[in-house]
Design goal:
This protein is mainly alpha-helical. The protein has one domain: Aminoglycoside phosphotransferase (APH), C-terminal lobe (Aminoglycoside 3'-phosphotransferase, Chain: A, domain 2), CATH 3.90.1200. It is about 60% helix and about 5% strand. The chain contains nine helices and four strands; from the N terminus they run ααααββββααααα. The protein has helices spanning about 5-10, 15-25, 35-50, 55-75, 110-120, 125-140, 145-170, 180-195, 200-205, and strands at about 80-85, 90-95, 100, 110. The chain has a two-stranded antiparallel sheet. A two-stranded antiparallel ribbon has the order 2-3. Strand 2 and strand 3 form a beta hairpin. The longest helix is centred in the last third of the chain and has 27 residues, at about 145-170.
Length: about 220
Amino acid sequence: MNAGDGFGRDSGAPVRAARALKRVHSLGRVFKSRFDVFAAIDGYLDLLRGWRTLLPEDYYEMGQRARAVRMALEASPSALVPCHNDPWPGNLLDADGRIYLIDWEYSGMNDPMWDLADLSVEAEFGPERDRAMMEVYYGTGLSPALCSRLEVYKAMSDLYWCVWGFVQHAKDNPAEDFWSYGLERLGRSKTRMSGADFGWHLSVVRTGGLQLHCP
């Protein structure tokens, strides 16, 4: 389902992808590794500092905002489950209507919402497809805490892959123009975290949500 084309042609793909992720998350196993987006970003930044790679000025502002996101998530932690952590369409194999996940390089224990948020970002879901994905995973009557958690992780997905892209650029990975890729993801993360309702989402995540339904 590379580059999101499968999702564009098949309105049921978000539902089937969410079911595939839920199967993984419900394995009841404990992976040896732990995927923590903030620790992973810090690790990449250490590499870039060691290589004396200068980051775009915008990154430092987003890094400051990411600290507020980290504090909000730590105030309302989720149980960790086995996660894929890189469910972009290119890692989803559609076999006669059932989706399988391939390429487990980044797998590890994580908040399950990371997988849903990363899928949403990579497949370019809009609000309707986000809701379809979330409802098949959690059921109807979604709480604001779940909806807001999805939104803040979407911002972190773009920030994480932005720094990953800068690392690929610094390593002279010839696969594509990773500097431009990193800048694009940085811009998307900035747009998300600069949105008028992002502060509200942080507050809802921090407090666990007080309303009954998503806005």
